[in-house]
């Protein structure tokens, strides 16, 4: 689970900003929003508010970059160069910095990255001890005078074989634009590295507006409990969907005779006995599997009831944008309920009606869950002390120098019964557009 993230000199962010998910002990309301860990209490949610251009999406982009750097083998900073904050000359030519602190298993870790343009200047991983013991270095990588210097924890180079292996990775395989963490994870001989890598890959999930979540069909196929959860949730949200399930048809009925190369590829993938493989057509993910000698295609199908009471079958492409977005979220929502994942969503309300979004969030915030949800939004109807703790609501805005600033609602001394939505709209907490009055005469002059 996420403890804290930090970003500096990236996009609209100049000086370091920090989003911390530590529960403030002085706040007694909504104690069920707290996840206790051995050393610190963590929050269930983080709702990030701000005007357009305040830096909300920049924060998500920064974490997307960090996540891709660690987990994506094809990711390379040379292909995704970093753009620093451009409104201060003293930051031009300086590295952009990203960091996350998190809890996984029974341990706390801190991972940080510094990139200048496309060159990795620093990459560090520490085991943290919030109870007071000094951080323990796992590895540290620094670029000094054009050369890369790496230090390892003694346990990682305890034997001559270990030291030789580490030397090969650093001297022969590590590039100035690649991730040392990812490289060491591929060795599969460092349990501590594997634990950290697995957290990034499986427990830190980032969803942007253009994200396509491609595993709904697999969830429906593999997990009966998920099928039950998904159908209960869809009925609760009044989507009109009575049931979601997989619909099977023959390959020929779906593709006809026009795509013989797809048939050959699917048969090759199924030849080793695996139960199914996936095929993507126009962003729809389907499953292919063999029934005897027949190649079958299984699609996600939604079932509605017509005006005459007759069941009607639809596919996701037939549904509204809002319903498709709900379907996109189903696997992630199930993970949040079941596992200690951290999900970061940019523009959570995109394509969703405000009432539907409020229903989803109320369900999450009032249910017994295991995951953290962090999201950016403009939807002021969610600003309620009945729904969120004050330390779960954060505001982003541009300072005088044009740089993003971030702060929690808990920085303000307010009553527990205060209508924070009304005060937010009046600008008391910041994070709202600063509009100048424009008169008709000014418009005429400008034209």
Would you write up a description of this structure?
The protein has 447 residues and is of the alpha+beta class. The protein has 12 helices and 20 strands. The chain has helices spanning 56-71, 160-173, 180-187, 191-203, 216-222, 224-236, 251-255, 260-270, 321-338, 354-366, 420-425, 440-446; strands spanning 2-8, 17-20, 34-36, 41-43, 45-50, 96-104, 107-116, 119-128, 136-144, 147-152, 204-207, 243-250, 277-281, 284-291, 294-305, 311-314, 342-345, 372-377, 393-398, 404-408. The protein has a 7-stranded antiparallel β-sheet. Strands 11-17-18-5-19-20 form a 6-stranded mixed β-sheet. Strands 12, 13, 14, 15 and 16 form a 5-stranded antiparallel β-sheet that branches. Strand 7 and strand 8 form a beta hairpin. Helix 6 packs across helix 9 (321-338). The longest helix has 18 residues, at 321-338. The protein is globular.
Secondary structure blueprint with pairings:
Blueprint: E1 2-8, E2 17-20, E3 34-36, E4 41-43, E5 45-50, H1 56-71, E6 96-104, E7 107-116, E8 119-128, E9 136-144, E10 147-152, H2 160-173, H3 180-187, H4 191-203, E11 204-207, H5 216-222, H6 224-236, E12 243-250, H7 251-255, H8 260-270, E13 277-281, E14 284-291, E15 294-305, E16 311-314, H9 321-338, E17 342-345, H10 354-366, E18 372-377, E19 393-398, E20 404-408, H11 420-425, H12 440-446
Helix pairs in contact: 6-9
């Amino acid at each position: 689970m996420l403890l804290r993230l930090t970003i500096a000199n990236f996009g609209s962010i100049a000086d370091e900003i920090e989003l911390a998910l530590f529960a403030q002990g002085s706040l007694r309301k909504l104690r069920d929003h707290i996840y206790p860990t051995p050393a610190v209490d963590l929050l269930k949610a983080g709702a990030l508010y701000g005007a357009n251009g305040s830096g909300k999406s920049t924060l998500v982009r920064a974490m997307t970059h960090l996540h891709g750097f660690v987990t994506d083998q094809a990711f390379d900073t040379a292909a995704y160069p970093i753009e620093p904050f451009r409104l201060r000359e003293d930051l031009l030519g300086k590295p952009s910095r990203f960091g996350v602190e998190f809890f996984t298993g029974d341990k706390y870790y801190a991972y940080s990255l510094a990139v200048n343009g496309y060159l990795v200047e620093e990459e560090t991983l520490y085991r943290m001890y919030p109870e007071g013991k000094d951080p323990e270095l796992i590895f540290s990588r620094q670029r000094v005078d054009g050369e890369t210097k790496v230090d390892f924890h003694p346990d990682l180079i305890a034997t001559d074989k270990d030291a030789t292996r580490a030397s090969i990775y650093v001297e022969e395989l590590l590039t100035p634009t690649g991730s040392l963490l990812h490289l060491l994870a591929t060795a599969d001989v460092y349990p501590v590295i594997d634990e950290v890598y697995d957290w990034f890959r499986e427990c830190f999930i980032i969803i942007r507006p253009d994200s396509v979540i491609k595993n709904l069909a697999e969830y429906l196929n593999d997990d009966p409990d998920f099928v039950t959860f998904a159908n209960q949730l869809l009925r609760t949200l009044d989507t009109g969907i009575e049931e979601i399930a997989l619909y099977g048809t023959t390959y020929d009925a779906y593709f006809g005779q026009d795509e013989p190369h797809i048939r050959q590829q699917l048969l090759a993938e199924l030849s080793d006995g695996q139960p199914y493989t996936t095929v993507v057509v126009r962003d729809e993910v389907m499953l292919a599997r063999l029934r005897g000698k027949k190649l079958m295609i299984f699609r996600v199908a939604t079932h509605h009831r017509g005006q005459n009471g007759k069941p009607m079958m639809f596919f996701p492409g037939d549904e509204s944008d809002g319903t498709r977005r709900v379907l996109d979220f189903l696997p992630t929502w199930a993970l949040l309920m079941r596992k200690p994942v951290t999900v970061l969503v940019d523009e959570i309300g995109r394509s969703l009606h405000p009432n539907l979004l409020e229903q989803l969030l109320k369900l999450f915030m009032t249910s017994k869950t295991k995951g953290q949800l962090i999201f950016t939004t403009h939807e002021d109807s969610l600003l309620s002390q009945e729904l969120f703790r004050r330390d779960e609501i954060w505001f982003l805005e541009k300072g005088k120098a044009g740089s993003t600033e971030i702060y929690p609602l808990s920085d303000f001394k307010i009553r527990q019964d205060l209508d924070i939505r009304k005060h937010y709209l009046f600008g008391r907490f910041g994070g709202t557009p600063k509009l100048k009055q424009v008169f008709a005469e000014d418009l005429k002059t400008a034209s």
